[in-house]
Amino acid sequence: MNNQSISAKEQRKVLKRLLSYAKPHTKQFAFAFLLLVIATVGEIAGPLIIAIFIDDYLTPQAMERGPIFFLAALYIGVLVLKVTVTYFQLLKFQEISLKIIQELRIDVFSKVQTLGLKFFDQTPGGSIVSRVTNDTEAIKEMFVSVISTFVQNGVFLIGIFLAMFYLNVQLALFCLFIIPIILGIMAAYRYFSSRYYSDMRERLSQLNAKLNESLQGMSIIQVFRQERRLRKEFSEINEAHYQAGVKNIKLDGLLLRPAIDFVYVLSLILVLSYFGVSSITNVIEIGVLYAFVNYLGRFFEPVNQMMMRLSMYQQAIVSASRVFDLLDEKELAPISEKEGLAPVIKEGEIEFKNVTFSYDGKRDVLKNISFKANPGETIALVGHTGSGKSSIINLLMRFYEIKNGQILLDGVELKNFEDKELRKKMGLVLQDPFLFYGTINYNIRMHDPSITDQEIRDAAEFVQADTFIKKLPDQYEQLVVERGATFSSGQRQLVAFARTIAVKPKILVLDEATANIDTETEEAIQAALEKMRKGRTTIAIAHRLSTIQDADCILVLHQGEIVEQGTHQELLKQEGLYYKMYLLQNGQADTVENAVI
Fold first, then answer.
1. C-beta of residue 414 within 8 angstroms of C-beta of residue 337
2. How many angstroms separate the CA atoms of 77 and 100, rounded?
3. pTM across the whole model
4. Residue 521's Cα: distance from chain center in Å?
5. Up-side HSE of residue 256: CA atoms within 13 Å toward CB?
6. Does residue 379 sit in helix, strand or coil?
7. Is pLDDT of 595 > 50?
8. pLDDT by residue (tens digit) across 100-114?
9. φ and ψ at residue 516, rounded to 5 degrees
10. Which of 532, 545, 470 is nearest to 504 (CA)?
11. CATH topology of domain 350-566
12. Taking phi first (over 0 means left), then psi (-120 to 50 degrees means alpha), and beta for anything else, what does residue 115 get?
């Protein structure tokens, strides 16, 4: 967890990068700033008009109607102009800010799509969601409130000091001592608040991660009666988030308005003392006194606003830092290393040559794996849990990059193929198929405009999914809820088969594809699988040995190594690990006890 204070240098770097998103909107920003300056000038002009009225007309009792009506009309006109311009200025800033955040969110979401599976293995989904939603929302407030407020109030403060110097140079110089004090308070607040906001954002990310995990595993939580434990864990994270928030509130309560109000009182004492002493020897103009005290009050109000916006600024900087960390993530999905014309998969020949692989760089899950699948052959992978079967699939699909060895397709290294070609020619069906919210039609087509409705129906009939689809009220237009929760596991798997067949892959990869299908459905789908494998190179992981007995070659893995290989009958004759697994699955436990592995 990162709850360290972000240094001033790092904050400037983040701010500079954040402002780069405003470059395409330079003209719109310039117009908004122009409106802001006009509104600020109108704000400053008000007290000057009143000072002129008091000193030139009210005090000497020179109540001439013409000039007074002119001053009144001028004051009302300035007020109306200020209100109107302020409205359009705020509207413009909001529009620009929303557009920038829209672009930033698209960048973040696009980046997430390019990240490798290794990143998702190490990062909770809720944490990523928090960065895409909560953190970008916090950044929005910077463009909406912080920048406009700081620029507006900055211009306003400069205007106030110019007006003060116009009224009384000596007293205006005395008031300059306020600036370093305020800057010191701002620096102290920025240092401590960045640490607290980092802690809060991290805790919020953990809350989202825990919530996401709980929602995804709600059935397991209820089955194993883990509600109390999950509530306790969530409560602990929530309490940590609360404590971080309390620390920040205490800091706000000390260094924001109270500290500035204290400085304001000291300044007011200074100004009134100056006029009090000056009145002994000189005549004091009431209008000047009014304008000076008014400007002093107006000076500290924008300072207070800036201090309050400083809180939003810190949140935005911390959030932007987290978002940019995600944008700078180096754990990308593997991409083609081939320059020029990329190769094409024609035959579907697969070969692993001395492949060694590790997820964490410490423990090898695959050790010197070598095998070859000729075009049209079916290679089955069997072994106990953790033997490396799924890792072979992950490498073949190029979800991870290998460090040692080679994977060849049609004699060409896997890394030379474009991702588009691999996904087009390699069909994958997982043990737990994922269905998206939409229709069955949508889930089979997967946004591929080249697949026609007839081809979708042909694919469904091919895998015998049309049997249950036609019984649905809306058939192929039947709505699929999140993850296909209203369908059985077998029905979801059939839709996944149809989705794979619809793209007509050259290589078929089955990761325990029949594990969650009931016996009746399995019998129906085995015939479809046999048709699917014709003319296609197939790599199949299977726990049920009965489903891969007709495979051209069976690889038996144990602790990341191929310990046996051959056909079903050949492996049974060896009476090794495969033989033992076969006896176990056929209920011959007594024979297994005497078998030699």
1. no
2. 35
3. 0.66
4. 39
5. 17
6. strand
7. no
8. 888 888 888 888 888
9. -100, 20
10. 532
11. Rossmann fold (3.40.50)
12. beta
How far, in Å, CA of 126 to CA of 208, rounded? 5
Quote the distance between the C-alpha of residue 275 and its chain's center: 58
CA distance 457 to 502: 9
Tell which residue, 246, 239, 241, 238, has the closest CA to residue 200.
Answer: 241
Q: What share of the chain is helix, strand, coil (3-state, %, to 5)?
A: 65, 10, 25
Rg (the chain; Cα; Å): 36
pLDDT of amino acid 596: 43
pLDDT digits 0-9 by tens, 462-471 = 877 888 888 8
From residue 157, alpha-carbon distances to 37, 178, 302, 306 in Å are: 12, 12, 8, 11
Could you give the CA distance from residue 356 to residue 360 in angstroms, rounded to a whole number? 13
Q: Rounded distance, CA 453 to CA 464, Å?
A: 16
| Rounded distance between C-alpha atoms, residue 478 and residue 489, angstroms | 17
- The side-by-side arrangement of strands in the sheet containing 350-358 is 364-373, 350-358, 404-409, 412-413
Q: What CATH superfamily is the domain 14-327?
A: ABC transporter type 1, transmembrane domain (1.20.1560.10)
List helix spans (H) across 144-256.
Answer: 147-167, 169-175, 178-216, 218-223, 227-255
Hey, what are 194's tokens? 């960045």
Domain boundaries, the chain: 14-327, 350-566
The total of other beta-carbon atoms located within 10 Å of residue 357's CB is 21
Q: Which of 311, 52, 362 has the alpha carbon at shortest distance from 185?
A: 311
The DSSP code sequence of 464-517 is T-HHHHTTSTTGGG-EE-GGGTTS-HHHHHHHHHHHHHHT--SEEEEESTTTTS
User: By the 8 A CB rule, do 88 and 36 touch?
Assistant: no
Question: What are the E-state strand segments in 506-580?
Answer: 507-511, 537-541, 553-558, 561-566
| pLDDT value, residue 40 | 75
| DSSP E strands, 347-477 | 350-358, 364-373, 378-383, 404-409, 412-413, 426-429, 438-439
Contact 151, 39 (CB under 8 A): no
Q: How many CB atoms lie within 10 A of CB 454?
A: 8
Cα–Cα distances in angstroms (integers) from residue 199 to residues 92, 175, 242, 243, 350, in the given order: 33, 38, 10, 10, 49
Q: Transcribe 3-64 into DSSP letters.
A: -SPPPHHHHHHHHHHHHGGGGGGHHHHHHHHHHHHHHHHHHHHHHHHHHHHIIIIITTT---
* CA angle, 363 then 366 then 367, to 5°: 95
Mean pLDDT of 172-182: 79
Q: Are 461 and 484 in contact (CB under 8 A)?
A: no
Contact 195, 318 (CB under 8 A): no
User: Among the ranges 289-298, 424-433, 478-487, 508-517, which has the highest mean pLDDT value?
Assistant: 424-433
Q: pLDDT value at position 452?
A: 87
What average pLDDT does range 30-43 have in this prediction? 80
For residue 144, CA distances in Å to 34, 92, 316 come to 16, 9, 11
